[in-house]
Amino acid sequence: MAQAARLRDIVAILETRKHPVPREVLLNELGVSYATFKRDLEVLRDQFQAPIRWLPGEARRERGYVLEDKGWSSGKLGLPRAWFTSSEIYALLMIDTLASHIAPGLLTEHLQPLITRITLALSAADDTPEDIRSRVQILASAARRRDAAHFENVAQATVRRNRLEILYFTKSRNERSTRVVSPQRLIHYKENWYLVAWCHRAEGTRLFALDSIEDAKILKEPAFEADKAVIDTMVGKDFGIYSGGERKWAKLRFSALQARWVEAEVWHPEQKASHLDDGSLVLEVPFSDQRELLLDILKFGPEVEVLEPPELRKEVQSRLRRALSQYE
C-alpha cells in the first residue's frame, strides 16, 4: 500500500471512532509494522499538522490514538475522505511542475510543504506521479534566468517593505548604474520577472527587468509607498508589460490563413475582433508603448498588416525595409 493511501486510512479510522484507537488495532487494520506506522504518524503530524494525540489512559482503559478535531481533514489538500477526482489530480501535477520552474528561491522554504502534499496527492491517481511527470513536459520559451541570490533579495525586500540598492544594466544604452529603489510589486510575465519600484534617483516609478539586476542589497530603510493607482495604470492596463502613457488602439489585419490561429488568442482583455468576407481577421488592441507590440507584429511577417495608427504602420514599414536590406 502506498504511503498516501495509508495516511488517508489512518485519518479515516480515527475520524470514525468515538473512543481512542489502540495501537494494535491500527496496525491490524492497516496491515503494517509499528516502524512503518510510526513513520506515517510523523508525516501526518509534521507535514500536515494533523491533531493526532496519544492518550495513555488509566489501567490500559481508554488508551490509544485520537484525532482531536474530527473535522480536521475536511478541505485539507492532502487528506479529505473523498479525496480528489482524476482531473484535480492532474491539475495538482501541473502546479507541482510549474512550482519547480517558476522562480529560483522565491518562497522556496514556504512552498516546500505544499509541494510535499501535492506529491502525496498524486499517489492517489491511477498512474504513479513518476509516470505522469514523464509524460508532461514544460518547455521554457525565451526565458531568462538570473542568479537566485539576487532574486531572493529582491523578493524579500518587496515583501518586507525594505529599500534596495541595485546595480542595473540598461541594455538599450549599454550602461550600468547604481540606484536605490523602493520595491512595490513583483511581476511574472512571459516566463520572466520584473520589479515595479520607486526609483529615488529619478523620483518616479520605474520598471526593472530582474535579469538586468546584477547586484541587489537589502537596506534597513523602509520602502517608500507609491500610489497603488499609479502602479495599476503603469503595468497591465494596455498591451504588454510596458504601459502608462497615452492609450492608442492598434488595428491589425491578419491573413485568412493566420486568422485561424489568431482568433483563438487573447492579446488583451479589451481587444476587439471582426472577420472580413475574404476570411481575414481584423484585431484591435489598446497600447501605450509600442516596443513589445512591434515585436509581436513583426514575427507574423507577411501574414499581418498594420492598418492604424499611421505612426505604428510607418515604424513597421521602416523595420521591414531595414530587415530586407540585409538580404539584398
How would you describe the overall organization of this protein?
The structure is a single chain. The protein is of the alpha+beta class. The longest helix has 16 residues, at 310-325. The protein is elongated and about 95 Å long. It folds into 4 domains: 3-67, Orthogonal Bundle (Arc Repressor Mutant, subunit A); 86-134; 148-234, SH3 type barrels (Roll), CATH 2.30.30; 248-325, no CATH class. The chain has helices at 3-16, 23-30, 34-46, 86-99, 108-122, 129-134, 148-160, 228-234, 256-262, 290-298, 310-325, and strands at 52-55, 64-67, 162-170, 175-189, 192-199, 204-209, 213-222, 248-254, 272-275, 281-287, 304-308. Helices cover 37% and strands 24% of the residues.
Number of separate strands: 11
CATH topology of the largest domain: SH3 type barrels
Q: Uncertain regions: pLDDT < 50 for 5+ in a row?
A: 77-83
Which CATH C-level class of the largest domain is it? Mainly Beta
Q: What's the N-to-C terminus distance?
A: 69 Å
What is the alpha-carbon Rg in Å? 28 Å
Instruction: Describe the main β-sheet briefly.
Output: 5 strands, antiparallel
Please tell me the CATH architecture of the largest domain by its name.
Roll
Enumerate how many helices there are, as a single number: 11
Following the backbone from N to C, one meets helices and strands in this order, namely: HHHEEHHHHEEEEEHEHEEHEH
Q: Roughly what fraction of the amino acids lie in strands? A: 15-25%
Number of domains: 4
Mean pLDDT: 82
> Which class best fits the helix and strand makeup?
alpha+beta
